[in-house]
Amino acid sequence: MARRRRPRGGAPLAARTHRLHPVAMPELPEVETTRRGLAPHLVERRVAGVVLRRPDLRWPIPPEVVDCLPGQRIVDVRRRAKYLLLDTRAGSALLHLGMSGSLRVLPASVPAGPHDHVDLVLPAGRVLRFNDPRRFGCLLWQPAGQVHPLLRALGPEPLSEDFDGDYLHARSRGRSAPVKAFLMDQRVVVGVGNIYTAEALFAAGVSPLRAAGRVSRERYGRLADAIKGILRHAIARGGTTLRDFLSPDGAPGYFEQELSAYGRGGQPCTHCARPLKQAWLAQRATVWCGHCQR
DNA sequence: CGTATTCCCTGCACGC
DNA sequence: TGCGTGCAGGGAATAC
User: What sequence ranges are listed for the domain FPG-type (predicted)?
Assistant: First the structure.
């Protein structure tokens, strides 16, 4: 039963023979795409009931979801970081898709399948169905006028004006953690996960291993611009690939062939053709070009 | 405080 | 073809 210890530190691993598959992991663009797809079907609708098929996802689903939500009218569907908030007068249902979660609006007559953990019953014979095989997601409750503890310490939204190179530069002084870990810290900036961090570092020419405090203001400017550009592109892409807005099932913002770094360890760099390096950093697979990223 | 590590969970790729 | 193993990931919790 010995749990194998993953290789740690910056030591590059041998190139993998198998491919990493960027499946529909909900990163910020996927959550935003889901929000846009769902909003027209939820706003101004009244929740008629809640069907819990499993009492817990990542955490137990609090009784307020069952006790307070039914009868409430959804007045807005918002996103904060990778959380979706279904606002009502009584409070907000707080949803996180984790790694494998998806939300769909379906006719209530569609039988629930495996991992269909929760339905919010909507008017006109429809339900909002939450499916999450790995159960890293959550459904929580935020009373009106309060901010849920999970949302209190979050950093700025990456697409907001509060987020730019100067902000990153100021926040990173004295930090010895690798810049990749720094960028993935939700207290620094929200919603920038493993895929998009790897792509932004590649685009900006910054090594993921470099200490966050040792990245210049100018390079942080390039990083912030890269993060914004990549996220905007992925959101736009999500909007175009989401054919059936009744089923916002996490259409990936990126197609595999658009990725320059993520999942391409050992393959040639798209700039210099040298093989991309891969290592474990902050408990995540990290791919970068040792020549183009410094 | 910052940093590093562990853990939660299941589907799938892979090797035998 | 079937079975066992390892790995993917967000991010909270924990340890230092």
Answer: 260-294
